[in-house]
Design goal:
The structure holds two protein chains of two kinds.
Chain A (H helix, E strand, L loop, with lengths): L14 H24 L10 H31 L6 H28 L3 H26 L8 H28 L9 H31 L6 H27 L6 H30 L8 H25 L3 H7 L6 H35 L3 H4 L5 H4 L2 H23 L4 H38 L1
Chain B lengths: L6 E6 L7 H12 L4 E7 L6 H7 L2 E9 L25 E9 L3 H12 L1
Parallel strand pairs in B: 1-2
Antiparallel strand pairs in B: 2-4, 3-4
The chains are: A mainly alpha, B alpha+beta.
Chain lengths: 455, 116
Amino acid sequence: MNLAGLDFDNIPAFSVPMRFFLAAPVFAFISALIIAFAGESMWLTRWHPATLALTHAIVLGIISMIMCGAILQLLPVLAGKSLPNVKVISTLTLMTMSLGTLSLITAFLASMFGLNQALFFAVSGVSFTLGLGGFIGAILWLIRQRSQASVSINTMRLGFIAMLVVGIVASLLLADYLFASQFNITKNLTDNHASWGLIGWVSLVIIGVSFQVLPMFHVAPAFPLWCSRFLPGFLFIVLLVYTLVTLGMTQLSLTNMPAWQMTQSICTALLTLGLMVYAITAIHCLYRRKRKISDVSVTCWFIALGCLFLCCAISFMMNIMSGTEGLLFSLGWSPLTLASVFIYGWIISVIMAMIIKIIPFLAYLHLQRQCGFHMQAFALLPNMHELLSKSRMQYLLYSHVFSLFALIITLYNPANYWLLSLAIMGQFGYLLFLMVNVSGRYRDRAKAIDEALLT
Amino acid sequence: MATNYLQTIDLDVSELQAPEPMRQILLALAALSPGQCLVIYHRKNPVPLYPKLTELGFVYRVDVEYRLDESTVLYDNQSSINSPSKDSCEDLAVVIKVAFKTDESALAALSEMELQ
């Protein structure tokens, strides 16, 4: 943490990030409903309409929603820049993203009910371009200058560019679908779309934020410079080469040429290796933290990094040893396992780890600012655990681990889908309760400080 | 040189998670009385703290020692007092001495004594 680069003065109002955080449980409930009503069949293939709807509900409705809220909050702190009219912009982004996600879910599910998909796809395409695309574009413009001081911002910038690439690839896929394959784009590009989304956008932003957050919240030593400076750029370049190779293959009809396939698997291997190196470095940093007090957030980080490492290691083995996949399938491995564990085990675990730290921290920050220079008011500043108790964080951790367990047994035997659906509802229902509770306590404290300031 | 001694109160926030260091410092400042000097041990250079201190009517001295690595010893770097933190997120050893404005000369004397 380089406090010299941190600026706590233009942080947006508490309600700005919270509106994004509060929207996430709503999409979690929708995801749980999709799981409950789609039944067992959706766990057989990634091309099932319900599987596509569920993936986008989780990745856009829960993950990207929370990320946007957190970015709005972090940007003024890390880069010293904030969007003008942040309340209006955040509300518009939230509305267009919600509309886009809902219509995308409907579009995927429409084929199951014989509805017209094209309209819903078009609505979601327009909403995301205007909402998320506009939002990320505006932020990229704000942080256009390369920062010497903050490796976090430099990494997050790559993540934001990756988000735009996800959008471009999505538009290509959508155009291909709507205009009946006039563009000669095969489903190969879907892998690229997913890689840019999960590794480029989500993982790079998480990695960037972790450079700042692990030392700050967990008193861990800083990441080694080679990792914070060069690893994100390496991942980004490999992703780019990977996509260009795929585009070349599909556009020039070279799908069967071994040299291209070889390049593609080298790219995948390098990506997984890069992420494995990050996972080990982050685990090592967390392990060397001062004062090894038990902390729910650190446990979540360990689960997340463990899942990341495991996913990448297995993917790497599949890539270099041809027999691995067959062996795993004979052990009850599902084609969805890798992506599911990556999303729920790595990304959602990080989100759980961050959200229980960020929300009380934000509440504290606003209260401290409210105190101004009034010495008597300082005594009213709450401790983190007064805003969100340790035992409640612990329950959230248990419910997350249970969801993860339910996911794994559903992947092993899809008949258990109802358990997963209930587990997700439970976990996010509890998260919603915690968020509302912290907001309530924040308001109470703010009122008390206001009274103290008047005396 | 002022001869009156300041009573020092040590506050080590170097192993606390954010935002606990700031909270503890603000609480300690609220309890500080004239004739006392709050000595804060921090692992970061808490830049947001300084304007607050000035605004609240305190005077302060900051000693920043840059650590090359965890394994190497601290090296004395008096010239870096109050200079902007160099780069990176590496941990530092920062000692901040805070006293009331009325004790400014005593604070200077205290720091002089330590140098000798």
